[in-house]
Amino acid sequence: MDMNTKGKILVIDDDPTSLHLIADILEPEGYDITFGTRGADAIELCDDDTDIILLDYHLPDANGIEVCERLKLHPTLSDVPVIFITANPVVILNTLASGNLFLECAKTLCLIFLARPSPL
């Protein structure tokens, strides 16, 4: 990472529009962004220089909890913080209300859930 980069962010999301929006927000701020579209990409693309992972909760090959569990079991990636992102905050609110999501996130040490940006 060069001296002008604020940090390295791994973004895992299967929606190309979301990836472009996230890039449009973070790259001008000086972040080094790596993108993946599958849960498996989180393990393959994350490395010791990754500062944080933005992880879509709903992916075609796995949900965010499963991916986060795999990351936390990896010997060199377990300390990389994860923020879940989703296009459907209503599902998150309903799941939070039931208490299940809170327990799952606590188990995987996920930091927070964010609704991902939507095109205007």
Name the average pLDDT: 79
What order do the strands of the largest sheet run in, or round the barrel if closed? 2-1-3-4-5
What structural class do helix, strand and pairing data support?
alpha/beta
Helix percentage range:
25-40%
Tally of individual domains = 1
Portion of residues in beta strands equals 15-25%
Largest sheet: 5 strands, parallel
| The CATH homologous superfamily | Response regulator
Q: Which residues form runs of ≥5 with pLDDT under 50? A: none
As a whole number of angstroms, the C-alpha radius of gyration is 14 Å
Order of helices and strands: EHEHEHEHHE
- The global form is globular
Count of helical regions: 5
CATH class category label = Alpha Beta
* Strand elements, count: 5
CATH architecture, by name, is 3-Layer(aba) Sandwich
What is the CA-CA span between the terminal residues? Answer: 33 Å
